[in-house]
Amino acid sequence: MAKLYFYYSAMNAGKSTTLLQSAHNYHERGLRTLLFTPRIDDRYGEGLITSRIGLQSQAFAFNRDHDLFDHVRKAHRQETVKCVLVDEAQFLAPKQVLQLTLVVDKLNIPVLCYGLRTDFRGEPFEGSKYLLAWAEELTEIKTVCQSGRKATMNARTDAEGNRVYDGKQVDIGHHYVAMSRRLFNLEEASPIGYKSPEEDA
């Protein structure tokens, strides 16, 4: 039976590379896939999934209003779709994650989503929150912090390389650094607003 998969990681862990390799594996066997990428992510051009090692593929560029279930269903009626792959899945709207569950449950097509869990303040992305709640299979793609620890967080930097703590959640670009939670320092970055009290003398 088909499943909804969520492959998550910090920045620069090879999510797009893994997606493109999965798509290639299907194509090698003559099986049709549908690739989706958010229109907002135009770092390499609209409708392109590009990995840092130079792999690239065309994909359908969706916006937050696009009905992914209806899109896949229509495509599937024309020619059998064996797998759906979604890059930068953190930018999915909650309704679109629900639509992807229907691709799995009603059309019996596996859906592989790749994305970040959290933003530069440690806050969960909307799409990732629902993928974490609803996907049958959760897989972490691991990467390493400069400290040598496992990186799980994404720090944002400015043009001079200085850490940024304020701004919009979505800021497309290459100015992010994967960090361990300890180096990331949630106490300073998080908008939750807790500061550990001083110890009594």
How is this structure best summarized?
The chain is of the alpha/beta class and 201 residues long. Helix content is 28%, strand content 22%. The protein has a domain at 4-142: P-loop containing nucleotide triphosphate hydrolases (Rossmann fold), CATH 3.40.50.300.
3D architecture notes:
The mean pLDDT is 90. Helix 2 (68-78) runs parallel beside helix 3 (94-107) and helix 3 runs parallel beside helix 4. The protein has a domain at 4-142: Rossmann fold (3-Layer(aba) Sandwich). A hairpin with a 5-residue loop joins strand 9 and strand 10. The strands form three sheets. Strands 5-2-6-7-1-8 form a six-stranded parallel sheet, sandwiched between helices. A three-stranded antiparallel sheet has the order 10-9-11. Helices cover 28% and strands 22% of the residues. With 201 residues, the chain is of the alpha/beta class.
Annotation keywords:
201 residues, alpha/beta, Rossmann fold, six-stranded parallel sheet, three-stranded antiparallel sheet, 6 helices, 28% helix
